[in-house]
Amino acid sequence: MRLAVIGAGAVGRSVVELAGEYGHEVVAVADSSSAVVADASSDSSAGNGLGVDAEAIVTRKAETGIVGDGDPADALAADYDVLVEATPTTLGDAEPGFSHVRTALERDRHVVLANKGPVAERYGDLQALAADSAGDVRFEATVGGAIPAVSTVEDIEPGHVTAVRGVLNGTANFILTRMAAEGLDYDHVLSEAQDLGVAEADPSFDVDGTDAALKCVILANVLSFGGADDPADAREFSLEDASVEGIRDVPGSVLRLAAEDGRTVRLIGEATGETVRVAPRLVHENGTLAVSGTQNIVQIETTHAGRLNISGRGAGGPETASAILGDVGRLG
């Protein structure tokens, strides 16, 4: 498959670096202000390995802050099979990511998303565009990094899944794990996490539960639309429909008391075809939901197969890129 990668952060760069290992060719890359597109005269469209120079792009981005000399629109107009949308998640109208998706689908190209915005905030619009296109849309990387949550739900069939829950944010989980292990308060551990690069300078997206909620909204949309006989009857979810509580107000004393009873606290998200909830919850300290550090876990409740648990790395450039390239393979 020939890929156009929009977004050159950690995830986009990892896709560029790893695509060849998965048998795919990157023919265009764009960041917010520049682009590089394989020279059409080199016959890169033939899939003969003459795409863009991945090493040169990654090096130039690190040294100069841009990927090339072209305009970002050049990458969207390139001759590709799959658009990889890896720009930062935006809420509300989910722009510019949604417009990138629209452009690709209107050209009958496939789309693979790492950007949560279009899937969490405009799922119905996304499905309508896909219905009118010869291209398909996949978005495994929007939920749980390397964990195959979406594809597992699809394989079971959404109509046979009653709920999906789990620990879906590594930053919040790292903080809660450290608070419990060391008997420390939130502010102290947050500073430690920021020093280690586990938490952003502004950690709100993670510690307030927004990131986990977006992932649960996406899962709720998969369950709702996938379980409906007619998509017109499906309920569409967005972040506004989620009940969200973060971890800022969890005191260290609660974790210490919980430990005395063999329990601990984790930020648990849950999605059904009717509700989305994210909040700190008491769980058994040796239970399946008590993953530690930056690990994530997804727990799938099914009507016939019981409870399934999938755990792994929920974020990171190569980890998320592996989910993206897995989706590309499913489109092949």
From TrEMBL:
- Decide whether keyword NADP is in the record: yes
Xref: InterPro entries: Asp/hSer_DH_NAD-bd, HDH_cat, HDH_CS, HDH_short, NAD(P)-bd_dom_sf
Per UniProt, where does L-homoserine bind?
A: 200
Question: What are the binding positions for NADPH in this chain?
Answer: 116
Per UniProt, residues of the Homoserine dehydrogenase catalytic domain are: 150-328
Q: What class of enzyme is it?
A: oxidoreductase
EC number(s) from the headed UniProt entry = 1.1.1.3
By its UniProt entry, which SUPFAM superfamilies does this protein fall under? Answer: Glyceraldehyde-3-phosphate dehydrogenase-like, C-terminal domain (SSF55347), NAD(P)-binding Rossmann-fold domains (SSF51735)
Question: One MF term from GO for this chain?
Answer: homoserine dehydrogenase activity
Aspartate/homoserine dehydrogenase NAD-binding domain sequence ranges: 7-140
Q: Which UniProt keywords apply?
A: Amino-acid biosynthesis, Methionine biosynthesis, NADP, Oxidoreductase, Threonine biosynthesis
- Catalytic residues at 215
Q: Which domain of life is it from?
A: Archaea
Q: Which GO biological process entries does UniProt record here?
A: methionine biosynthetic process; threonine biosynthetic process
**Keyword RNA-binding included in the entry's annotation:** no
Q: In which pathway does it act?
A: Amino-acid biosynthesis; L-threonine biosynthesis; L-threonine from L-aspartate: step 3/5; Amino-acid biosynthesis; L-methionine biosynthesis via de novo pathway; L-homoserine from L-aspartate: step 3/3
Ligand binding (NADP(+)): 7-12
Which protein family is it in?
Answer: Belongs to the homoserine dehydrogenase family.
Name of the featured protein = Homoserine dehydrogenase
Q: Which organism is it from?
A: Halorubrum aquaticum
